Each structure stands twice: as C-alpha cells, then as structure tokens.
Amino acid sequence: MTLKGLLVKDLSVEVAGKLILRDVNLEVRPGEIHAIMGPNASGKSTLAYTIMGHPLYKVVNGDIILDGESILNLPPEERFRRGLFLAFQVPPETMVKTRTLYTYLAKRNNISFTKILQYIRDIGLSEDILDRFLNKNFSGGEMKRSEFIQMILSSPRYTILDEPDSGVDADGILMISRFLKQLKERDVGVLVITHIGRVFKEINPDAVHVLIGGRILMEGGPEIIKLIDENGYEYLQKLAVKR
Amino acid sequence: MSKREDTDLKNIIGLTTAEEILGEREIGGDKLVIKGRISPDLIDEISRRKKEPDWMRRMRRMYLEIFNKLSTPQWLEGIEELDLDELSYYVDPGVERRFSWEEIPKDIVEAYEKLGIKKAEAEFLLGLNAQLDSESILLRTKENLLKKGVVFLPLEEAVHKYPDMIREYFMKIFPPEHKFAALHGALWSGGVFVYVPPNVKIDTPVEAFFLIGSALEGNFEHTLIIADKNSSLHFIEGCAAPRLSRYSFHDGMVEIYVGENAHVTFTTLQNWSSQVINFNNKRAIVERNGHIEWVEGSIGSKVTYVYPSAVLRGDNASMESYVITFARDGHIKDSGSKVIHRGRNTRSRIVSKSISMRGGKTIYRGVVRILKGAENAKSYTSCDTLLLDDKSITATYPHVQNDEPTAIIGHEARVSKISDQLLFYLRSRGLNENEALSMIISGYISDVLSRLPFEQAAIIRGAIDLEFSKYGRVG
Questions:
Q1: Of the candidates A52, A92, A108, which has its C-beta nearest B422's C-beta?
Q2: Which of B424, B432, B446 minimises the CB distance to A54?
C-alpha cells in the first residue's frame, strides 16, 4: 500500500530560464500542517505554483507525488480534481462573476446554494460579492476570504495557502488560525507559506521548513518560528552556513 | 472528464452553434435559380416571377442604376472571393409557402427542429416567418396577433396587399447610400413586413428566421417594420446556414419606423456558417418619445459588416444598441452602431463587446452625429474588446461629430487580454483551458446577455461553449 501524502522530491524549478528552486524535499501527510517560511523572493510562491502545475514553471529535476502517484505531467485542473488546492496570495482579477465560479465549485461537491450563502456570511463577506467580478476591486481581506470560501467549496485533501496572512487584520489572522485547526481536524494536509508565521497563534505547525535562496536551509518544529521572529532570516542564514 | 462534470458545465454555458448542428448537407431539394450578369433583364425576370406591380419593378431598376454608378467602399476587406457574376441572385427553394409545419418537406422541417426554431415557435413566439433561400416557406401567427390588427407578412405579399405603405417606406429609411445597399434594392427577395397599429403592445416576440440552404447564393431579404404611435414590438431575427462548399453572399436590410411614443426591440442572432459573406444594413427612424433597442449577436459568418443605426428625429427619441461580435480563425467582424441626433433631449447608448480569437479580427466602426438644434442630446459609447491570443487583432474607429454646444458625449474603449496567470488561476479551480476561456467570455458579455430573453442568451452562450469545447477535448 502506498503512503498517503503530498511528496516533493529533489525538486528543482526553472522560470524563464532561471533556476529558482534547488533540491527541495517535503512530505506532508494528511492532517499535518507544514509551514514554509522564508524572506521575500526566496522561492516560496514558486514552490506553490509548481506543485499546482503552473505551465510557466518548469521542473528540471525531481518529482511531485500525490498519494503515491506522480502528478508532474498533469495539468493544474487535474491536480485540482485529485484533491489539491492552492489559495493564491494575490488572486488575479477576473471577468467571471463570483457566483459563477462559486456555484461551479459547489456543484462538484453537491453543496447547495444556501450553504454557499452561509459560508459567505460566516466568513464575514457580504452577499453582493456574488454579483461582482471575482477578485476585481476586491480589498485584501475580501480576496483572502474569497480564496478560503473557494477552498471550502472544493473540499481538498491537500491545500497550499500562499501567504494567507499578508494584508489581513488581527481578526482575519484569528480566523485563519481557526481554519487551520479545522483543516487538521478534517485530516487535510496543509502547506502554509508565510514569512512571519503570525497565523500559528492558536495552532502550531507540525513542521517548519525555512526556504532561502531557493533551498531549504533549515527544518524543525515551531521553535523555528520564534527564532525567526526574534532574530530575522539573516541570522538563520548565517547559522545554516556555519553548520 | 466525467459525464457529471460535462452536465455541470452545460448548465453554466449552454448548447451549440448552427453550423455544427446543420453539418454539411445542403437544405432543400431541386431549386430554380436566376443567375448571370446583373442586368435590367435579370431584374425584370425576378420582378415577373414575383408578379410585382410595375412601380416596384421600376424601383428595382432605379437601384440597379445607382448600384452601377457607385464604387465599392475602399475600406472593405475580406471580400476578395466575392464574384457577383457567379452568384444566383434568386433561389426558389422549390417549396410553396405553407401555414403548418406538417405541409413542409420533412428534411426541411428537420433543419428547423434541430435549430430549435420549431420549439420556440410553439412555446414563446407570437409569429414566425421562416424563409429558405429567397422565399418564405412558412408563416405561423397566433390568433391574438392578428386580432390586435398586427400585419405580419412576407414582404412580397405586403407589396400586393399594402402597396401604399410599402411605397411610402420601402428604402426610404435606408436609402441606397452605398453600393451594396443599392444592390439590395435591385435584388431584394423575401423578408417580412410588420405593421403594429396605434396603442397595440406586442410583448411576446415575433421572429423571422432565414436559412441559406446552399453555396453561391445571393440572399437579399428585406425586413420593414412600422410601429405606429404608442405601440410596442419585439422582433427577433435569426439566421443560419449549413457548412457550405463555397461562399454565399448575404446582403440584407432592416428598416424600422418607430412612431411617436412607440418602442421597438430588434434582436439579431447572426449564426451564418463560416463561408458566408455578410452585409446587413439596419436603420431605424425614431419619432418623438420613441425608443429603438438594437441587440446584435454576431456569432457566425466569414466576414460581417453590420452597424445598427438610428436617426433620432423627434424630441426625446432614444436608441440603445448592444452589439456582441465574435471573430475567429481569420474571420472579420466590422461592426458598431451609428446614430444621428436631430431632436431635442435625444439620447443614445452604444455598448459594443467584441471577442477575437485564433487570428480573428474585430473592428468597431461607429458614428455619433449630433446636429445643431439637438439641444441637450446625450450620447454614450462603450466599446470593449477581448483578445484571446497574440494572433488576434482589433481596432476601434469611432467617429464623433457634434454641432450642438449643449450636447454631452461620452466614449470609452478598452482592450483586455487573458493573462497566463488568470488562466492558471481558473485551471487551478478545476476548469480546463477551454472551459476557463468560455467562463471568462460568458462573464465578459454577461451584462449584455442579461438583457436578452433566456432562449437567445442560451444560443449565444452555446455558440461560445461550442467554440471552446470542440478543441477542448484534445489535450
């Protein structure tokens, strides 16, 4: 029997001919929360896009394995269908009515429209978001909340949250923290990309991976978050080199 | 893709296009055609076949003379293969006009069934005139249409029954100001005459449906609508053709006279197959407090030139024009709207949404003309283009001329492209590339679609869906 999990193996990724990620290894089991931490431009979003199958991100080495099967040659939509979800840091403006995409996602999981409305209210959005173009003129908070609703409607088995805490107020951070708890309870494997780790207030990650310059320089438990918080990434970088 | 997901997507986007539905089989059996060099004799022959009064024959001859004098507009493109001498100018479908579907040959009825026209007629139309090639083959009217005194007839019949009205209005609203409009006047055949008496409101639409059954046809149907004082009408025009072995030429005309306080909505769903060269001349004259609403869904054809227009003659007269065009694979859509403000407080609103893909070319060509004395006239134009790839082309040529200092004129134009990031985003939500594109396009035209009756919106959505689904299963 194959082991359940999202496995990233010796992954190296090129974007527009430039090597961004080198030899990245990760293993996220169902119900585990992993944090990918790193300074800006360290390759965090590249990792998220590559796992989801962005056509402009070229895997030059390594593999991505979902529940025992390589998904490297699958298009993004197929990766989604196999239970993978990516909540974007900054989702692009669309010409699609929010209602259209929400309904589309909900139908796949037999979620009723009433339920959609309930999720919208629970997460603190207004119903009129449905008649707006998705992500167009959305505030930072609306974008994040909308990404979360889409995640709920998609009921993924593994989800990647790309900087869920950026541009979000204190209430928003608390909400995300609670979400993480729920995801864990439902046995979803979660990869949280963040550079400050504010979202781990109510729940600690099972593992923290520090990504700097496209490589994983350090791995460990929640204590790393504190380390980063108190000393910054530069200190970690030096520490890693010394080793 | 599983069956269930297919169904889900259909719910979002809809059905299929006419060319796809009709396939390659020509429609109709043995046809009598009139072809050869366009000459006074040829004109006389058409007139004789129609047993027309002499005034109409003379009118046709006059337009022929004008046609011969005018030169082809310089800016036309994409009509190189058009050779007027090889076309059939009049194609008798070989079927007498009937009043019930049962009396029409089965294979022809089948075409209308496949296109959903028969069902639409039964369920939501008050009247239907179905034309195959150059002649009307079926006229259906529901009782309350006639009871209200509405006239709904093939134009040929109206020439005999209502000669005074036809003489007064025929090509008066749209004089033969360019070569192809003049040619239309000389060769017209088929089309509908509608007269709505004063104070009569027709809320349920009537429809004229035109089918070109074979290649190398010239098709010149003429629709003339007179909406008398305080009346209202919704007229739907639909057209389709099977996939043809060579081109056919459509040069139709729509003239609408909107009386005082009257309201006319004219909706076109142009779904010609991709061999058809399409000219459609459309104009309304609007009297005091009158309103014309044009909705143009230009889906099919190889080349289309169409500019729904209005002369706002009376005070407070208004026009709304919604134009959706779709060009792909080297096809050209040259469209837009034209309006002339003459009365005081006249208003016009033009919304154009075009989509170019796989080397398609869309052009917006519009005219807003405000004459001196059209005090407080207001005109607003918005034209948006969506480019789906780098091979596709778009251009905007607005023409605005204002002689009235109190007028307010607005114009907005936007070109949008679909970014890789946007496609990736939607694909990461489970849509394949083509599904994502059709969802984007549906959203892009949603504000115009929401103005259409459900059935029509479904046809446009369906055409878009088919465009993408056809290529979508490859990857």
A1: A92
A2: B424
Measured between beta carbons, the chain B residues lying within 8 angstroms of A51 are none
Where do the DSSP E strands lie in B391-444? 393-402, 408-417
Q: Which two tokens stand for residue B358?
A: 């796989």
Q: Alpha-carbon distance B252 to B274, whole Å? A: 17
Contact assignment for A103 to B12 by CB distance below 8 Å: yes
Please answer whether residues B207 and B234 qualify as being in contact, where contact means their C-beta atoms are separated by less than 8 angstroms. no
Are both B80 and B56 inside the same structural domain?
yes
Q: Verify whether the Cβ–Cβ distance B440 to A96 is below 8 Å.
A: yes
Q: Which amino acid is at B20?
A: E
Contact B430 A81 (CB under 8 A): yes
Q: Say how many C-beta atoms besides its own lie within 10 A of residue A162's C-beta.
A: 23
Superfamily (CATH H level) for A6-242: P-loop containing nucleotide triphosphate hydrolases (3.40.50.300)
Spans of all domains in chain A? 6-242
Specify the pTM.
Answer: 0.84
Angle subtended at Cα B387 by Cα B382 and Cα B388, rounded to the nearest 5 degrees: 145
Q: How many domains does chain B have?
A: 2
Question: For B445, which residue in chain A has the nearest alpha carbon?
Answer: A95
The CA distance from B372 to B395, in Å, is 30
Q: Are B160 and B208 part of one and the same domain?
A: yes
Q: Are B452 and B460 in contact (CB under 8 A)?
A: yes
Minimum CA–CA partner of B5 in chain A: A108
Tell me: do B371 and B433 sit in the same domain.
no
Q: What is the DSSP string of B210-232?
A: EE--SSSBEE--EEEEEE-TT-E
Pick the residue from chain A with its C-alpha nearest to B3: A108
Look up the ipTM and state it: 0.96
| Interface A-B: count of C-beta contacts within 8 A | 82
User: Roughly how many angstroms between the first and final C-alpha of chain A, as a whole number?
Assistant: 37
The pLDDT tens digits of the residues spanning A202-232 come to 889 999 999 999 999 999 999 999 888 888 8
* Distance between CA atoms of residues B418 and B431, nearest Å: 15
The bridge status of strand B303-306 relative to strand B232-240 is unpaired
Q: What are B's interface residues with A at a Cβ cutoff of 8 A?
A: 5, 8-9, 11-12, 386, 416, 419-422, 424-433, 439-444, 446, 475
List, for residues A59-100, the tens digit of each pLDDT value: 999 999 999 999 999 999 999 999 999 999 999 999 999 999
* Rounded distance between C-alpha atoms, residue B24 and residue B31, angstroms: 18
- Cα A215 to Cα B75: distance, rounded to the nearest angstrom: 59
Q: Which pLDDT score is estimated for B472?
A: 35
Same domain for B72 and B213? yes
Q: CA B170, CA B255: separation in Å to the nearest integer?
A: 8
Residues of B in contact with A52 (CB under 8 A): 424, 428
Which chain A residues contact residue B421 at CB under 8 A?
92
Give the nearest partner residue to B428 out of A52, A56, A107, using CB atoms. A52
